[in-house]
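Changelog-linked ticket: pyridoxal-5'-phosphate example.
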Amino acid sequence: MLYQRSSQLFIDAEKVIPGGVNSPVRAFKGVGGTPIFVKKAQGAYLYDEDGNKLIDYINSWGPMILGHAYPPVIDAITERAKSGTSFGMPTELETQIAQLAVSMVPNIDKIRFVNSGTEACMSAIRLARGFTNKNKIIKFAGCYHGHSDSFLIQAGSGASTFGTPNSPGVTPGTAQDTLLANYNDLESVRNLFEANKNQIAALIVEPVAGNMGCVPPLGGFLEGLRELCTENEALLIFDEVMTGFRLAKGGVQELYNIKADIVCFGKVIGGGLPVGAFAARNEIMNYLAPVGPVYQAGTLSGNPLAMAAGLAMLQEINTNTQLFDNLDKKTAYLEAGIHKVLTQNGVVYTINRVGSMISVHFDAQPVVDFQTAKNGDNETFKKFFHGLLKEGVYIAPSAYETWFITDALTYEDLDFTISAIDKVSKAF
Ligand SMILES: *Cc1c(COP(=O)(O)O)cnc(C)c1O
């Protein structure tokens, strides 16, 4: 496949956009080479600027769970645009999508819409701090909650000390209020609660982690977090920006039957437009302005185009009773096929999967947290990525990303992908 035009477009972009991209992972730094510029997408396929057709396993990092340019979503956006694109005033559409979301997701009474997953998580933390009147939060190494200051934190020295910034521009003052625990390690969480008695407002977690590859919670982990939060009067925040409306209608709360106090959404909830949301029971949501004292706002929040896209998407998910079953079957089929060919070809690997989230790690040990995710062989991953790309299969350009399976994929696409993986891994 040729990438002449993409390469030229990237050179042009680099002159006026830092690194040529508006979000770093798109730049191919993790795998080398230059990014592919997309011309259009339809169903399970991307069509790039050089005329190549690629099977897409990123799907805009999750939102296109029903495939690209899904007709009901496109129709809703097009229809709505004719009546104006932003008012900064309430619309009935906002109530409709809120009603639907509240009916689909357990344990929430009210929901507030924002413009990204970052905003949702950032606002959820402020709300939790305002509600509990405490300052510190716990997050897990390797979990991503957007790029707001409180989350760009790495572990400091010693497990029970406070975090340190992992980006210039984040102040030590902010970093000291974020404590780092290890995923799937309840002891690390218990230690933080003990060392910071009555100071922890909330614990935020990806209940199925998807930003260090896919890392499922081990049995008892989420239950343990629930208990520790309740015991310590801290709020449990499920960041379901990736998992919400993807792993089940009601997300991970429904899938594993665990009650979170605040839930964050993004990705699927916007149907491919910029939307995030956070939700909780009345007692907590009523702490938000204009009812309560915690301030949060947005000129474009609840934007009619975005709400129309999100509503059309959620309606499809709500009424398609086979969707999650179909997604699970397709992803299981892919998983079994990858197992078969990688084993035959003598590759050292681990596959993690929950529903339609799956990741291949080039290491023999189970991947259960950030440390074990980092053990994967990145040189092999690079060969894997570029090899698949040559075959017309596009996976995320980083070893730390989950693949997002879309319902638009056919079994022929999956067979094609498995054959491509066979071919590529023979040449490792
Ligand atoms: C993508 C993601 C975010 C950030 O969402 P943006 O819309 O990119 O700001 C937050 N949390 C999780 C779990 C995510 O996967």
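Closing comment: Example verified and attached. The pocket of pyridoxal-5'-phosphate is lined by residues 116-118, 121, 144-146, 206, 210-211, 239, 241-242, 266, 276 (CB under 6 Å). The mean pLDDT is 96.
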